[in-house]
Amino acid sequence: MAKTIMIVDDSASLRLVVAIALKGAGYDVIEGSDGKDALGKLTGQKVHLIISDVNMPNMDGIAFVSAVKQLPAYRFTPVIMLTTESQESKKREGQAAGAKAWVLKPFKPDQLLTAVQKLILP
Q1: What is the C-alpha separation between 25 and 74, in angstroms, rounded?
Q2: By the 8 A CB rule, do 24 and 5 touch?
Q3: Is the full-model pTM beyond 0.90?
Q4: What's the mean per-residue pLDDT of the chain?
Q5: Residue 1, pLDDT score
Q6: Hey, where are the domains in the chain?
Q7: At what angle do helices 61-69 and 88-97 cross, to 10 degrees?
Q8: pLDDT per position as a tens digit, 22-52
C-alpha cells in the first residue's frame, strides 16, 4: 500500500515539482496551499510524512507544525521543512516545533526523496 505524504507550500509550482517526484517514487500526495489549508485537510486519515514550507501566508510552517503536533492522530508524524530559510535560529525554531529535517530550496528531487525515505517508517 502506498504511503501518503502531505506537501504544504504556498507555491503551486513547487507543490507540483515535489508531487511529481513523490508520485514517481510511489507515494500518494495530499497538498495544502498554506498551514491553515493543510490543517483543514488533516481529518484523521493516515499521513506518513509532512513536507512544509516555512514562509507562507495565513499560517506559517512553524505555527503549522506546532498545531499538527497538538493533534493526537499526527503527534508522531515526521515533518520535513522545505524552505529558503537557512538561519540556525529558524532551524532551532522548526526543531522545537517538531520538524525532523530541514531541506533548503532550491533542492534536488533525489535529495528530498532520500530525506523522505529516512523518515518514513516501513
Answers
A1: 23
A2: no
A3: yes
A4: 96
A5: 83
A6: 4-117
A7: 20
A8: 999 999 999 999 999 999 999 999 999 999 9
32 CB-contact burial (10 Å; exposed 0-12 / middle 13-18 / buried 19+):
buried
Query: To 10 degrees, the CA torsion angle through 2, 122, 118, 61?
Result: 60
Superfamily classification of domain 4-117: Response regulator (3.40.50.2300)
Q: What is the mean pLDDT of residues 46-63?
A: 97
Bridge partner list, 8: 32, 52
Nearest to 28 by CA among 47, 51, 4, 46: 4
Rounded average pLDDT over 89-104: 96
pLDDT(122) > 70: no
Task: Write out the chain in H/E/C secondary structure.
Answer: CCCEEEEECCCHHHHHHHHHHHHHCCCEEEEECCHHHHHHHCCCCCCCEEEECCCCCCCCHHHHHHHHHCCHHHCCCCEEEEECCCCHHHHHHHHHHCCCEEEECCCCHHHHHHHHHHHCCC
